Amino acid sequence: MLTREDIEGLLSKGGNVAGSDGGKIGGLGQLYSDDDTGEPAWVTVKTGLFGTSQSFVPVEGARIDGADLVVPYTRDQVKDAPRGDTDGRLDPAEEARLYTHYEKGVRTYSEARTDTGEARGRLRKYRAGAGGTEDPRR
């Protein structure tokens, strides 16, 4: 299982995401961690002309090969994935569409709540803090 530190290392090196056939899909974009566990759940892949689009791909089943994150999906599967909002959080409906696309089945979980009691997605974009790393469970 890949850790947040593994993926941070690839991000700091400007790593790429490669498909199951070994071909480059695109540059590694962002890491989304599970709010409950802090573990990496999804990454984005920079696709499209000049890497201006980002596609989500699950970290589950991925491995590191040098400076690449190799995912068990083809380039077409990743590029055809439903687009999610990369504003910092995946909402439950977006996550369900992505799991369905990658044939992982719909995952159920208790929705996290904001301080005001509003439901929110449980996955958030990981951000490195100054001099260290931010705990993604906050």
Report on the structure:
This protein is α+β, with helices and mostly antiparallel strands and 138 residues long. Helix content is 17%, strand content 34%. It has helices at residues 4-12, 75-79, 92-101, and strands at 16-18, 24-34, 40-47, 53-58, 63-65, 68-70, 89-90, 112-113, 119-120, 123-125, 128-129, 132-133. Strands 1, 2, 3, 4, 5, 6, 7 and 10 form an eight-stranded mixed β-sheet that branches. Strand 11 (128-129) and strand 12 (132-133) form a beta hairpin. The protein is globular, with a radius of gyration of 14 Å. Residues 108-115 and 127-138 have low confidence and may be disordered.
Question: What's the short version?
Answer:
The protein has helices spanning 4-12, 75-79, 92-101; strands at residues 16-18, 24-34, 40-47, 53-58, 63-65, 68-70, 89-90, 112-113, 119-120, 123-125, 128-129, 132-133. The chain is an alpha+beta fold.
Write the element-wise H/E pattern from the N-terminal end onward.
HEEEEEEHEHEEEEE
Which term fits the overall shape? globular
Q: By helix and strand content, what is the structural category?
A: alpha+beta
> What is the CA–CA distance across the termini?
22 Å
Q: Secondary-structure blueprint of this entry?
A:
Layout: H1 4-12, E1 16-18, E2 24-34, E3 40-47, E4 53-58, E5 63-65, E6 68-70, H2 75-79, E7 89-90, H3 92-101, E8 112-113, E9 119-120, E10 123-125, E11 128-129, E12 132-133
Parallel strand pairs: 1-6
Antiparallel strand pairs: 1-2, 2-3, 2-10, 3-4, 5-6, 7-10, 8-9, 11-12
Q: What attributes does this structure have?
A:
eight-stranded mixed beta sheet; two-stranded antiparallel sheet; globular; disordered C terminus
